[in-house]
Each structure stands twice: as C-alpha cells, then as structure tokens.
Design goal:
The protein is an all-alpha fold and about 200 residues long. About 55% of the residues lie in helices and about 0% in strands. It is built from eight helices and two strands. It has a two-stranded parallel sheet with strand order 1-2. The protein starts with 7 loop residues before the first helix and ends in a 7-residue tail after the last helix.
C-alpha cells in the first residue's frame, strides 16, 4: 500500500505560486554572454560555443534548492525566477521597454500614434471613437495606455534588483543588439524575399 505525504506541501507550493512575485534573474544571460563572447574568434563552431556557454551557466549560477522540492533544482536562484534566454532575443525588447518608465512612455506614445494613423488611413477613426464611447459608458476602457513598469503593474508583475536591471539594460542587451536570433531574423527575412510585406 502506497502512503502519500500530507497535502500541506502542495498547499504551500500553491500559495507561493499564487502570492509570490516572480523575480527576473540575469544569471543565465550574464554567464551565457560571458562565454559566448569570450569564444567569438576562437574558430569553434556555433554548436561548440553554445555548449561551452551553457556549461559556463551551470558551473557559475546559484543553485536554489527549496525545502519543498521532490527533485532538487530550479532554472534560477529563486523559487519563482525568470531566466532570460538573451541569445534568442524573444523577450529582449519587452524587457528593454518594460523595465524603464521612460521607454514605456515612448513606446505607448509611438504605438498609439501608429494605431491612430492606421485608423485614419483606413477611414475607421470615427467608428473607433463611437465604439470607444459605447465601451466607456459600459465601464470598459477601450485602450490600455498604462505606463507602469513590470515591477509596478498589478497584473502579472515581475521584480528585479536595481543592480541587475542596470547590468541587463546597460551591459547585456547592448552586447546582443543585432546578434540575437530575433534581431537577425527581423533583418534577414524581409531581405530574403520569402515573404511579401503589405500594409
């Protein structure tokens, strides 16, 4: 007969997932970048450089073991840590925008003007205004013009230390500008002729 442990552990873990704020970890980004750029002119293949970079991450990262673990170990040094795959670039621009208030403000202004320009060009601006009034009268906000950074927002917030934020924004992201996979694809796909961009 199998005897299962108390549900207390599950309750504790559930409460932590529901109540704790995720922490952005720069350890993976920092240690991966360190080895990747160290091996830049080494003559090694990209596969070998990736392997060495990941090895560097695992050798240097802080290993978190939680009292409630059944299998020890996390992706980051925190229970609810968020690692950054900086070389892929999938969230680099999101972090660059949402970690700094001034960048958030610029982004909101730019995207709002772009949206309004599109609506005017398609002759739908009046319809948008009319629909917005209807939505507002029913208590719904049609556009989210919030400019709260990740750590200040009420829904799905993330925290990061000031020191880590500075390293990420001033050192790591500039290193990977135009070198991460997303930036390379955004540059090369339009030039390839594989897709036709229409507005």
């Amino acid at each position: 007969m199998v005897v299962y442990a108390s549900n207390d552990r599950i309750k504790r873990i559930r409460q932590r997932y529901q109540n704790e704020t995720p922490v952005i970890s720069i350890e993976r980004a920092k240690y991966y970048s360190e080895k990747w750029f160290e091996t830049e002119d080494s003559g090694l293949s990209n596969g070998e450089r990736v392997a060495l970079s990941i090895k560097n991450v695992y050798e240097k990262m802080t290993h978190h073991v939680d009292p409630d673990d059944k299998i020890a170990g996390y992706w980051t040094e925190s229970f609810l840590g968020i690692p950054i795959d900086i070389e892929k670039g999938a969230f680099n621009k999101v972090f660059q925008t949402e970690l700094k208030w001034s960048k958030m403000f610029q982004f909101r202004i730019k995207s709002t003007l772009k949206s309004f320009s599109y609506l005017i060009k398609k002759r739908n601006f009046r319809k948008f205004i009319k629909n917005s009034k209807v939505l507002r009268s029913s208590g719904v906000t049609p556009l989210n013009l919030g400019i709260k950074t990740m750590n200040k927002r009420t829904i799905n917030p993330f925290t990061i230390t000031k020191k880590d934020r500075k390293v990420l924004l001033k050192k790591l992201f500039p290193l990977w500008k135009d070198k991460n996979i997303v930036d390379l694809l955004e540059d090369r796909i339009p030039k390839s002729g594989l897709i036709k961009v229409t507005c």
